Structures are given as structure tokens and as C-alpha cells.
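Changelog-linked ticket: glutamine example.
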Amino acid sequence: MKALLMLENGMTFEGTGFGYEHDVLCEVVFNSAMCGYTELLTDPSYAGQGVVMTFPLIGNYGICYDDAESTKPWLGAFIVRSVSGIASNFRCDVDLDTYLKQNKVPGMCGIDTRALTRVLRESGTMRGMISYGEAIDLAAMKKQIDAFVLKSYVPEVSDREGKVYGDGPIRVALADYGVKHNIIRCLVKRGCTVKCFPYDASMEEILAFSPDGVMLSNGPGDPQACVKSIEELKRLYNHGLPIFGICLGHQLMALAQGFDTYKLKYGHRGINHPVKDLEANRVYITSQNHGFVVNADTVDPAVADVSFVSMNDGSVEGLRYKNGRVFTVQFHPEASSGPLDTGFLFDKFIDLMGGSRI
Ligand SMILES: NC(=O)CC[C@H](N)C(=O)O
């Protein structure tokens, strides 16, 4: 079916629908990764976003359920140049088109994704809408985009079941704001028992598990919308447990300490983002997926130091708190997909919890 993407600035891009061909409103962002689309589709941090892949051919190795980062794809829409008609991989469970249909994720292909990406880079991330069919009413689309308000998906993606993973001796309470499962795998592999807590769990609920440390997960949307989580983190920080935060978890801890966050023009989404470790004076290549960052000017030097910065735009990529027990990063040390350079941060967390590495 014919598909049309309209951005909030009124620009339109024509293409063809695939996946679940139903009209959708989303925030349009781009990702520069050349592979790892299964991980991307199932990363809850993309909830509600229409993701444009800059790499032109997507779907050629199909979908392997074992690579999923959560139970289903969460993103609002998937926008690619060309969808491979052949899913060629011995591990493949289902092809991309069928997977998106089954999970009700609208797809759009056959558009000039590089031209679209240039627009998003120059004008910034924008709201947008994809409509399907022959009779598309442009004026009605524009109206809907203008009225569209981005919401926080954290309550939807956060798990309320209190699942427990692993059976190791180190007890980790995981604040689940929309966790990528590789964070859990990285902890279990290092000898942890990980129990998930919903985004709005109170400090008392978390402490009742008698954790050795708390892991703050990644998650979707504007960190400032997570008011209840920020309140609980303020109290948890003072309790004295080791805390490791990733991406949204990093932003929430910063807000809990009274630092500020702001929205980047077009975000960092890809698997080759260089960050500099300011202490070690080393650069690592990292996987990233975020639209917001901590404002360096608001970081109180009596409370925390900036530990990592982006080599691309100098923005804050990590904080080390002065109490010596709390550290957080904006990038994804669990990778999946992406480079494994910063996996040592999980070892650092294990050490802080008094455990020995396995
Ligand atoms: N991956 C994440 O946790 C993203 C954090 C936040 N939603 C952002 O876009 O900045």
C-alpha cells in the first residue's frame, strides 16, 4: 500500500507500507546502526518513536527471538529505505515484515532515508505521522500532528510482575523503567540474582529485598516526566547502597540530585558513538540511544563529577558521585547491539557491591 510520512514542519515523504499498515503518530528519530535491528525494535526506550534507519538495507537476516531485548517491539513505526524480501540466516525465526504485522508495528519503506535524516539533523527531531492508502488528506494529517502530545511510556514498559533472574550470591534490585534484557544478562553472568521492581516502587519495597546494590535501567521518553521515580531515587541515594544507572536511570539520578536535563537537537542513536573517560583519558566506542542529556552546567561539583563526555558534541555521558558508591552512564555498556568496550562497568558495580568477579 502507498504510505506517506509527514513531519511537523509540513514536509512529506512518499513510500510504501509494510508491517502493520495503520496510521500512526510518533516522534521521528534516526539511528545510524548498520545492524542490530532486532535489538532496536525490542528496546523499550524507543516506545512511541518512529525510527528511521540510515543504513539502506534492513531485514536481510530476519528476526531471531533470542536476540530480543524485551518481550515485543515497542517502537511507534519503523522507517527504512529497503526491506529485504529474503531473511537469510539459520537462526531466523520470522521475517521482519511478518514480525511487524504480528506485533502491530507500522512500517514504511522505499523512501529516501538519507534525505530524511539530513532534515532531522538540520531541523531537529520532529513529531510526525504516517498515513496509508490512496486518499490521504494532508491538511487533516497536519492537524493531527500539531495536536499530538508526546507521552511518557515508562508506566507501560515497566514490568510489574517482579520477575527474578539468576541465582547468584549478589542481590541486585533492578528499577525497571523499560529495561533492556542484556543489562540483566550482564548482571546474572557476573553472579547476581536480579529482581525487577516497577518504575514507581518505593524505597521501602526495594530495601525489603535486602539488595547489595540497585541497578537503574534505561527507558523511554523525557526523564523529567518520571516524577515519582525521581522522588524515590532521592531517598535511595541517601540510604548508602551502591547504585549503577544506565541511560534513563542516569538521567533520573541526576534529576534526583537537583541537576537538570535538556533535549538534544537530534539525539544520539547508533552503535559507534565515541565517549571519553575523563579519569583514564581513554576513548571507548559505545552503543547509544537517547534524546535527552544531563546539563553539565547544573552538575554540583560538591555532589558529582562528570566522568564521561561525548567526543561528538561534548555532552555529559557519565557521572561519578562523590559518595563513592553511585555512578551512572548515558551510553549502553550492555551493548546489544553494539561494541562491548565498556562492559567493565558491570565489573566495577560488582566490586562496589563487595562481590568478586566471575
Ligand atoms: N535509552 C534510554 O534510556 C533513553 C533515555 C531517555 N528516554 C532519552 O531519550 O534520553
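Closing comment: Example verified and attached. The chain has a mean pLDDT of 97. The chain has two domains: 2-147, 154-352.
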